[in-house]
Amino acid sequence: MKTKIAEIVLPQGYHPSEDEEYMSLQQKAFFRQLLLDWRQQLVSESERIVAIMNEEQTVFADPTDRATLETDRNFELRARDRERKLIGKIDRTLEILETDDYGYCMTCGVEIGLRRLEARPVTDLCIDCKTKEEHLEKARRPPAEDESEF
Fold first, then answer.
1. Does residue 32 lie in a domain region?
2. Residues 98 and 109 placed together within one structural domain of the fold
3. Distance between CA atoms of 33 and 84, rounded to whole angstroms?
4. Is the same domain home to 127 and 93?
5. Are residues 34 and 81 located together in one domain of the fold?
6. Are 56 and 69 in contact (CB under 8 A)?
7. Rounded to an integer, what distance in angstroms lies between the CA atom of residue 144 and that of residue 13?
8. Pick from 86, 122, 133, 125: nearest CA to 109
9. CB under 8 Å to 31, separation ≥6 — which residues?
10. Residue 99 pLDDT more than 90?
11. Are residues 51 and 118 both part of a single domain?
12. What is the pLDDT of residues 9-51, one digit of tens each?
């Protein structure tokens, strides 16, 4: 019978090591817990902000104050939207974690590396492939007005 990642109990203070087999059950359990904790933090923060925004039913006589509130709300809504997308990526990563694909670059297949995964557990590209992707994105992006040639 195959052991499930969710059933693994990590030792107190466990931290993945280069000395272990890459993406062992213990390492996968570590990253699963890291992702679950991160997801819970995002959901809690989102719920807190939504509650605050729902309580702010203030009517402003001054249009400038109202505009400031609307600007702040728009900023918060954009941030919540980014967090919603990140939660979706965390959920997809948790699904991938159950397979043997987690921790390997989706482009070239090499090990992503424990430290990179600890810093960004939803990453699916090694540093080389991510760098290439960013260079291609930069090359495709039209220059900003202050960067354009005259």
1. yes
2. no
3. 19
4. no
5. yes
6. yes
7. 47
8. 125
9. 16, 97, 102, 103, 117, 121
10. no
11. no
12. 898 999 999 999 999 999 999 999 999 999 999 999 888 887 7
Q: Kindly report the CATH number assigned to the domain that includes residue 70.
A: 1.20.120.910
Q: Are 95 and 37 part of one and the same domain?
A: yes
Question: 3-state secondary structure string, the chain?
Answer: CCCCHHHCCCCCCCCCCCCCCCCCHHHHHHHHHHHHHHHHHHHHHHHHHHHHHHHCCCCCCCHHHHHHHHHHHHHHHHHHHHHHHHHHHHHHHHHHHCCCCCCECCCCCCECCHHHHHHCCCCCCCHHHHHHHHHHHHHHCCCCCCCCCC
Q: What's the whole-model pTM score?
A: 0.78
Residue at token pair 């609307």:
70
Tell me if 32 sits within 8 A of 59, measured CB to CB: no
Tell me how many domains the chain contains.
2
Same domain, 69 and 123: no
Residue 64, token pair as written in the block: 């400038």
Residue 23 CA to residue 45 CA, distance in Å, equals: 30
Helix axes 63-97, 25-55, angle to 10 degrees: 160
